Amino acid sequence: MCDPEDMTRDPAADRAEDALAPLGPVHARAMFGGHGVFVDDAMVGLLADGVLYLKVDDRTRPRFEAAGLEAFVFAGGRTGPMRMSFHRAPEPLEDWESLRPWAEAALEAASRAREARRRRVRRPPA
Q1: Which CATH number fits domain 4-122: 3.40.30.10, 3.40.50.2300, 3.30.1460.30, 2.40.128.50?
Q2: Strand ranges (E), 4-109
């Protein structure tokens, strides 16, 4: 039986998986018309229109902004465009030595976000 995701898989998903493979087990999963890119269970990136955006947080966002790597803006929000916590990955993705510091920063930001979510979930009710 054929996996339905394979039939609609964006070639950019394979490219992103290959580019980020040095971080660990990576997979792209179709979601919201694009793909989420995960290392283990941490979402390190998203693909939209064939472009890879990497996870940022308050610690890493200034580096991405200083390098001119623009934020992903979700246009479909009820309140209008929403700036998301993902910034465009530098090109070319195939140059690991150039991509490495950005990819590692994305993994660190994703890991912090995942841990913060886990702490919120574990907090006992008041």
Answers
A1: 3.30.1460.30
A2: 26-31, 34-39, 42-48, 51-55, 71-74, 82-88
How far is the C-alpha of 10 from the C-alpha of 51, rounded, in Å?
A: 11
Token pair listed for 66: 């200083």
Per-residue pLDDT reduced to its tens digit, 77-117: 678 888 899 999 999 999 999 999 999 999 999 999 988 87
Map out the domains of the chain as residue ranges.
Answer: 4-122
Whether pTM > 0.70 for this model: the answer is: yes
CA angle 110, 115, 119 (to 5 degrees): 150
Pairing of strands 42-48, 34-39: antiparallel
